[in-house]
């Protein structure tokens, strides 16, 4: 089959690889119809996530048709159209049973490696390095889906591929970012990053009753999408001082909750500030550039919530612990527990409360994946989200 | 019996290393006191009573024996003291050899007998010194670990799966097979790198249903080992804390290196991974596999695993 493979930093290729096989009794094989390139795939593309090997198949947002199931899969049958959550979750460990699917205790066969960096291992993730399991990804013609009796959600005919595939990662992740803010009527929510996750976080904050949503980014076309499609207010951090502007917008309080939807490859309006962390990152003194995170902590109103759904891999320098502690802030984080959200969000789509396909800017065949990565990386041609069709 | 250290391993804790030094010490003590209290009769008995030097040499030998006795009975550095006895034996044999050259008749007869006796003692001393040193080296190499995992199953379920020893290779990467001979005894085969195979017999020496299992290798194992697994209800209704205490003494030499490789650079990591797979099997029904780890418990893959860094290009 054809699959998108990581070939080294800034290099992906569509190559021929063997078809996936059933390896465990609870596996299913899915023939992929639509898959997407995620912002966190760019971290792999840029070489920031360790334990990638040449030839690893990328992709953790995908959907398609079940073509084969293992003997222990009873809820799916060949022919079912499903969307597959990106965390691989066994459903039986105590984390899964408490709904913490992205910290499944069983799904990372290389947990020992992850423990060295993170203390405990999170769940395995499709196409996301050997640190997180060494699972083949879904930017391919077929994918093996472990624990298929737990994760995949059947998609009704009235929901289109370009809507459903958003349930694999970006929509639930943005939604969880907003949910963790514990939004109450009258509240102001600020979102750093107007990529797909940031836009869904802003949209979800609205769905959950926020009075005002403020989106911070540097690309005018993405900010325009937030304004026109979601009715959000926006700040372009290359043109205005974010802390001053937020203080002004909230009459000195600061936003009630701040969502970091940026993660480890953040940018800064000030070239010197950017260069400082970028240099340390290159020297591996720190692994992340946490501008958005620092700013979110400083901006947040005292006693407010900092909700982190942007992806981080390792260690952060100059974490403003003084502000965080002295001002009674609450931080909530996590890779999205996607399985918790797929059904309720599917129902919101069916009820017409949101059409998640609004973020899709590019559609291309799988064989053009390398072009898709390049466009998304460079933010060319007003790119927000690339869908690959198979 | 709360620690697995108190489980006896016959090769390491058996009577030989524990009592040999003190037996030799008592022998030295008797000889030393004899030589100091009755040098005259001793000289006659050994056949050197015609020499004036003997009256000086025999008490000196006695003092040396008392020194050895004190050292051996103190229990510190038993191998060193055992070897010091061998050195003393060599000195005695040299002296006896020189005396033998000058004697004839009845005295020569007695001297020959004494020499033979001391040669015998020397052999025993060499044997003891070698045994004591080997046991000490094995003890120094001994690997001990205490590792636990929390499994979302009842103690009874976890116990039942483990108690069927033939299940163990399903999650222990280095085990090729375990055959239960009866309810207590089992035969274990571990396969390591380069076709090295280690086999041993083990017995369960304590079995408390749903609580704990304690086992040890039987005498003759080339890698003596003992262990205990306890199944403790986890607080807050979170299943079972499966706590494994393990110790084993890899031999020296090529087999030792193979055994070390078998357990990887970090033996504890290997056991932790084994326990993780035990959890996987109990909770999900199978060892979890991915395209990057297709075998789940392949020894080769375990050996190649490098924590926290991608494999170098040459090993991809």
UniProtKB/TrEMBL annotation, chain A:
Keywords: Metal-binding, Oxidoreductase, Zinc
Residue ranges occupied by any Enoyl reductase (ER) domain in the UniProt entry: 8-388
Listed CDD domains: FDH_like_1
Pfam families in the cross-refs: ADH_N (PF08240), ADH_zinc_N (PF00107)
Record bears the keyword Acyltransferase: no
Cofactor: Zn(2+)
Keyword Transcription: no
InterPro entries to which the protein is assigned, alphabetical: ADH-like_C, ADH-like_N, ADH_Zn_CS, ER, GroES-like_sf, NAD(P)-bd_dom_sf
Domain of life: Bacteria
Family: Belongs to the zinc-containing alcohol dehydrogenase family.
Protein name, entry field: Threonine dehydrogenase-like Zn-dependent dehydrogenase
Source species of the chain: Micromonospora luteifusca
TrEMBL record, chain B:
Protein name: Membrane protein
Region annotation Disordered: where it falls in the sequence: 286-316
Biased composition (Polar residues): 292-304
Provenance organism: Micromonospora luteifusca
CDD domains listed in its UniProt record: SRPBCC_8 (cd07817)
Domain Coenzyme Q-binding protein COQ10 START: 151-276
């Amino acid at each position: 089959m054809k699959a998108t493979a990581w070939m080294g930093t800034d290099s992906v290729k569509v190559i021929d690889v063997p078809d996936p096989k059933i390896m465990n009794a609870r596996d299913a094989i899915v023939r992929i119809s639509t898959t997407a390139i995620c912002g966190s795939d760019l971290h792999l593309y840029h070489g920031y996530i360790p334990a990638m090997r040449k030839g690893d198949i990328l992709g953790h947002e995908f959907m398609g048709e079940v073509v084969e199931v293992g003997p222990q899969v009873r809820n799916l049958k060949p022919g079912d159209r499903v969307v597959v959550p990106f965390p691989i979750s066994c459903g039986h460990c105590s984390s899964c049973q408490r709904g913490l699917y992205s910290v499944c205790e069983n799904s990372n066969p290389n947990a020992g490696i992850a423990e060295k960096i993170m203390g405990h291992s999170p769940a395995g993730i499709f196409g996301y390095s050997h640190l997180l399991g060494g699972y083949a990804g879904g930017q391919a013609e077929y994918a093996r889906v472990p624990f298929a009796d737990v994760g995949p959600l059947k998609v009704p005919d009235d929901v289109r591929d370009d809507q459903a595939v958003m349930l694999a990662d970006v929509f639930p992740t943005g939604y969880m970012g907003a949910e963790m803010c514990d939004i109450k009527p009258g509240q102001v929510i600020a979102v750093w990053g107007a990529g797909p996750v940031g836009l869904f976080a802003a949209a979800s904050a609205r769905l959950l009753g926020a009075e005002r949503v403020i989106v911070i980014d540097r690309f005018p076309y993405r900010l325009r999408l937030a304004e026109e499609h979601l009715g959000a207010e926006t700040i372009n951090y290359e043109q205005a001082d974010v802390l001053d502007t937020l203080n002004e917008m909230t009459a000195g309080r600061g936003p009630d909750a701040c969502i970091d939807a940026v993660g480890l490859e953040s940018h800064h309006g000030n070239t010197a500030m950017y260069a400082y962390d970028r240099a340390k990152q290159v020297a591996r003194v720190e692994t992340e550039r946490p501008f958005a995170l620092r700013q979110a902590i400083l901006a947040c109103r005292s006693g407010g919530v900092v909700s982190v759904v942007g992806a981080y891999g390792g260690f952060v320098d100059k974490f403003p612990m003084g502000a965080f502690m002295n001002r009674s802030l609450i931080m909530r984080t996590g890779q999205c527990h996607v399985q918790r959200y797929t059904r309720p969000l599917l129902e919101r789509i069916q009820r017409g409360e949101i059409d998640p396909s609004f973020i899709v800017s590019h559609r291309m065949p799988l064989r053009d994946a390398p072009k898709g990565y390049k466009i998304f990386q460079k933010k060319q041609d007003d790119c927000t989200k690339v869908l690959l069709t198979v | 019996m709360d620690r697995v250290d108190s489980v006896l391993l016959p090769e390491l804790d058996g009577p030989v290393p524990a009592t040999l030094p003190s037996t030799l010490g008592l022998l030295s003590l008797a000889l030393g006191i004899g030589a100091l209290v009755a040098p005259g009769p001793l000289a006659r008995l050994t056949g050197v009573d015609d020499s004036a030097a003997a009256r000086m040499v025999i008490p000196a030998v006695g003092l040396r024996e008392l020194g050895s006795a004190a050292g051996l009975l103190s229990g510190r550095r038993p191998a060193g003291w055992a070897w010091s006895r061998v050195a003393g034996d060599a000195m005695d044999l040299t002296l006896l050899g020189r005396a033998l050259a000058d004697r004839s008749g009845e005295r020569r007869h007695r001297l020959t007998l004494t020499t033979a006796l001391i040669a015998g003692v020397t052999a025993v001393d060499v044997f003891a010194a070698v045994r004591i040193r080997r046991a000490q080296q094995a003890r120094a190499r001994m690997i001990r670990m205490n590792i636990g995992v929390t499994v979302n199953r009842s103690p009874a379920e976890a116990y039942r799966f483990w108690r069927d020893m033939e299940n163990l290779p399903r999650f222990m990467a280095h085990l090729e097979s375990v055959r239960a001979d009866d309810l207590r005894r089992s035969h274990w085969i571990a396969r390591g790198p380069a076709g090295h195979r280690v086999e041993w017999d083990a017995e369960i020496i304590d079995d408390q249903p749903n609580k704990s299992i304690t086992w040890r290798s039987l005498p003759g194992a080339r890698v003596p080992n003992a262990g205990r697994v306890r199944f403790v209800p986890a607080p807050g209704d979170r299943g079972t804390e499966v706590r494994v205490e393990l110790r084993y003494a890899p031999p020296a030499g090529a087999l030792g290196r193979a055994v070390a490789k078998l357990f990887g650079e970090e033996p504890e990591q290997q056991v932790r991974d084994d326990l993780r797979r035990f959890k996987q099997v109990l909770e999900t029904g199978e060892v979890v596999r991915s395209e990057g780890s297709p075998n789940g418990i392949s020894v080769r893959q375990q050996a190649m695993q490098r924590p926290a860094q991608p494999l170098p290009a040459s090993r991809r």
